[in-house]
Amino acid sequence: MPRLVAVSNRLADPRKAAAGGLAVALSDALANTGGLWFGWSGKTIVDGTPGEGELHVHQAGDVTLAELDLAQEDEQDYYEGYSNGVLWPVFHYRLDLALFEPRHLEGYRRVNRLFARKLMPLLRPDDLIWIHDYHLIPLASELRAMGCKNRIGFFLHVPLPPHQILAAIPQHEWLMRSLFAYDVIGLQSQTDVTHFARYVMNEANAERLDDNRFRAFNGTVVVQAWPISIDVDEFQRLAQTRESMDTFQTMRRQSRDRRLLVGVDRLDYSKGLPQRLKAFAELLQRYPENRGHSTLIQIASPSRESVDAYADLRREMDTLCGAINGDYGELDWMPVRYIHRTIARKRIPGLYRAARVALVTPLRDGMNLVAKEYIASQDPADPGVLVLSRFAGAAEQLADALLVNPYDTAGTAEAMQVALQMPLQERVNRHQRLMDVLRQRDIHWWQRSFLEALENVPVTAP
User: Fold this and answer.
1) Which of 27, 387, 408, 450 can pair with 14 through a Cys bridge, CB separation 3.0 to 4.6 Å?
2) At the fourth CATH level, which superfamily is domain 232-440?
3) CATH 3.40.50.2000 fits 4-229+443-456, yes or no
4) DSSP-based three-state secondary structure for 265
5) Is 59 helix (H, G, I), strand (E, B) or coil?
6) Per-residue model confidence (pLDDT) at position 461
7) Which class for 104: exposed (0-12), middle (13-18), buried (19 or more C-beta within 10 A)?
8) Domains 4-229+443-456 and 232-440 in one fold
9) Which phi and psi angles does 6 have, rounded to 5°?
10) Are 300 and 272 in contact, with CB atoms under 8 Å apart?
């Protein structure tokens, strides 16, 4: 098998992989091939020269890690400015939050050229190169310009929006043209593949050679949905750790005869958190039997709070939680327990297992692995119910969840009520079918099937 070279904005030590993370997906393949993982170290050099950076190469078991420092100006333009200021909001359908600054685009291109320049000397002729996510869309085209002839694959971990939204990005044609330097492109859902097809056919007069192959911009690329997943066995082992079991017992003891609903998210405008809280308030208003008997535990870990949109979201969450608790709370019961910090990962499976209902209701999401983690955490004899946004990538696979439109407050509240009242046998049947999906297409299937597709495409011509 050829050596695997993985490239991502940030990298991780595969020996310290957290279940569900990219490291889990790549660690086996990297170790089996003596692979290389290349990415930004996370360090910024305050007085560094833009477009330059020091590379640090070291071993992590059988895997070589190559970490690149960035100049502060590069970090601001490439990462904060273009990746997170343009691509993140646009790819999540939020054009209103995108800030189109020419210098940010130049920084994005400059850092991708830097990545290519530093990576090229480390490559071998038969390496398989797998590049990850929106930060590095043009990296293959930069490598090709330097003479790289290797097979190169790309996986997008966020949604791909409809072509009308993509076309709002200044120089969108350059961005999409860059994708045709790859041999294989993986997207999270069939919806994303449809959006890709419509863009290239409407904006670039692409030729569709078959279901998964497109020709445009003088290149041919395979585009297919590969929904990312979790390591089910590893996550279930995590659920058996002392920390997880202690959390489960504590939550059950504290909740006594009350039913728990849980949400675990980053504090991000794509996650639909205010809409979720409004739906929970609607549940308490329309179905008063839940007052005093149902509690929502909402964890929203900090995320980019220096950005105005995130600071505004935090203030809105504080206000909504205070209003719900003020309107409905009792001396011995608060309807919402809101935690704005990161909870240790080893405790999360215990929290999931204690919850009768999980609320995974993003306004738009690439996949959302919380949905899959919740399913894997459940007791098969007495499982909880997943309430899932139809706008999460996971909804294409997890049809036995209760699918909701997060913009529909009354509809989401009704789904919560159905979940809380669902009979045991229906819960067991739904959970079994959901687990079958997770088993059939876990993280190892995702990694293995993508790399098989990449290995089997013809080498790109010089």
Assistant:
1) 27
2) Glycogen Phosphorylase B; (3.40.50.2000)
3) yes
4) strand
5) strand
6) 46
7) buried
8) yes
9) -100, 140
10) no
Give pLDDT, residue 19.
40
CB 387 within 8 A of CB 416: yes
Q: Select which of 365, 400, 431, 442 is catalytic.
A: 365
The chain-wide mean pLDDT, for the chain, equals 94
Alpha helix positions (H), 98-180: 102-119, 139-145, 163-166, 172-179
Residue 424, classified by CB atoms within 10 Å of its CB into exposed (0-12), middle (13-18) or buried (19+), is: exposed
Tokens (6 digits) for 334:
């608060």
Does residue 400 have an active-site annotation?
Answer: no
pTM over 0.85: yes
Q: What is the residue-wise DSSP string for 206-230?
A: -EE-SSSEEEETTEEEEEEE-----
Q: Is residue 365 among the annotated active site residues?
A: yes
What are the structural domain ranges in the chain?
Answer: 4-229+443-456, 232-440
Higher pLDDT, 460 or 453: 453
Catalytic residue, candidates 104, 135, 157, 163: 157
Task: Give tens-digit pLDDT for 356-406.
Answer: 999 999 999 999 999 999 999 999 999 999 999 999 999 999 999 999 999
Looking at residue 15, its pLDDT comes to: 67
> How far apart are alpha carbons 407 and 314 in whole angstroms?
19
| Spatial CB neighbours of 440, under 8 Å, sequence gap ≥ 6 | none
